[in-house]
Design goal:
Elements lengths: L9 H11 L8 H16 L8 E7 L1 E3 L2 E5 L4 E4 L8 E4 L4 E6 L13 E5 L4 E4 L9 E8 L18 H9 L2 H6 L7 H22 L3
Parallel strand pairs: 6-7
Antiparallel strand pairs: 1-9, 2-3, 3-8, 4-9, 5-6, 5-9, 7-8
Length: 210
């Protein structure tokens, strides 16, 4: 898979990207970096990668009769953290609040033990007073990696998969639409990307403990 466990900088990844498309792109340096970060974000959202799982902690807020948690800026999506459910643990006794779908939230109105994602307002809302504002909470989620600065090194995916980013950049829809010459390399580069994705998914599966 190329340079095993050797971190690549954005400069090196972009150089590899240009090699993959035989320098058929006319993207500026800024546009290439934006494309690189776009591809990293796409990979991150593909599934619940173990290396992107993290814990959120804080205190419950209240506005009127609404008790809620404000989502962090790197929030991607919730992950199962107990018995195949997505649970928010509240207070020192770790009371369990199951997260239900936004569409089904009315079925749990004024019912304790539940919460739902209100993504429009960037928060998790409890269906009933969980105890009081100021109670602690914790839950697990998959984060979205922060954008990598020029000359920096991606923290995701792991080093051995960094060439995957270049392959993903070469088959990005916007890049293909703007620079038709790149289409001649699409099949080959898509195969490269898919191969890395399979390897990354297998590596991820070996980290999962049931």
């Amino acid at each position: 898979m190329g340079n095993e466990n050797i971190n690549m900088t954005t400069t090196e990844i972009i150089s590899l990207f240009n090699l993959f498309v035989a320098d058929s792109t006319e993207l500026s340096d800024t546009e290439e970096l934006a494309l690189l970060n776009r591809v990293i974000g796409k990979i991150a959202l593909d599934r619940p990668w173990e290396s992107l799982k993290t814990e959120a902690t804080g205190t419950i807020l209240v506005s009127g009769s609404i008790y809620y948690i404000t989502l962090l800026s790197d929030f991607g999506f919730l992950v199962e953290n107990k018995d195949n459910k997505k649970i928010i643990f509240v207070g020192s006794n770790h009371a369990e609040y199951e997260v239900v779908s936004f569409s089904n939230r009315r079925d749990y109105r004024d019912t304790g033990g539940y919460a739902y994602l209100d993504l429009v307002n960037n928060r998790i809302v409890f269906t009933a007073n969980p105890s009081s504002a100021g109670s602690s909470y914790e839950f697990d989620y998959c984060k979205i990696p922060a954008d990598v600065a020029s000359g920096g090194t991606p923290t995701f995916p792991p080093a051995r998969f960094h060439p995957m980013i270049a392959a993903g950049m070469s088959v990005d829809e916007l890049m293909i639409e703007q620079f038709p010459k790149a289409q001649s390399y699409t099949i080959e580069n898509q195969a490269k990307y898919n191969s890395y994705l399979r390897d990354l998914a297998y590596w991820n599966s070996q980290l999962q403990i049931s």
